[in-house]
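thought: fold this chain, then report.
action: predict
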Amino acid sequence: MEKVKVLLFVDRMRTGGIQILLVNLLKVFDKKKYSFDVLMLDDGTDYPMEKDIIEAGASIYKLKGIWINTPIDYIKYKKAVSAFFNEHHDYDVVHMHSSSKNFLILKYAKEYGVSIRIAHSHNTDFQTHNRLKIIIGDALKKQLIKYSTDCLACSKIAGEWLFGEKMVEDGRVLVIKNGIDIEKYQYNQKVRDDKREELGISDKLVIGNIGRFVRQKNHDFLIDIFSEIKKLSQIRF
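observation:
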């Protein structure tokens, strides 16, 4: 049986939720049925997670020298995406894990005959305070939807942000929550005791947080909560 050929697009392979999700999914997909390539932009950095992608069985392609900061960069980006699909146009599925600024991935996928084109929302804003970029990004959402055959989101809010409330209400956006391998996080008393002893916190209440310093992680609220908790004794952060 011929394999289903899938192209996954992500801006870059820095350590983050999207990238970890991709690696986890690549590890469990049936390699006898599917083959995967990963396409990304190139900001000149070789990220450690690129190795994880390769070890999970996928190939990596980079749009060399392409990183979008200016209108001129976008022109170069457009040419690079077109050239990529001109050379690699035998995909059955293109799955884009990005916002509307990268709608060209799906546009050229359609032009080169890719029948299944998935837009996947993992965010709730453009992570910029530049008003012009936000206006342009909002305008490009219509283009993203236009060239998508399927719309996915990691949450209802993420779906509403990128595709609009009506599409979510009409059931045209499938919400797939990011899964994890729960076996890796099963409670283990020995591991707990050993790590606490190593860190010198055997008898302390420890509260931790893992997340990038961006608005969605709500660190302002976290700091308010921590300031109250700190009033208690034997607390470590």
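thought: worth noting. The chain has nine helices and nine strands.
final: tokens above.
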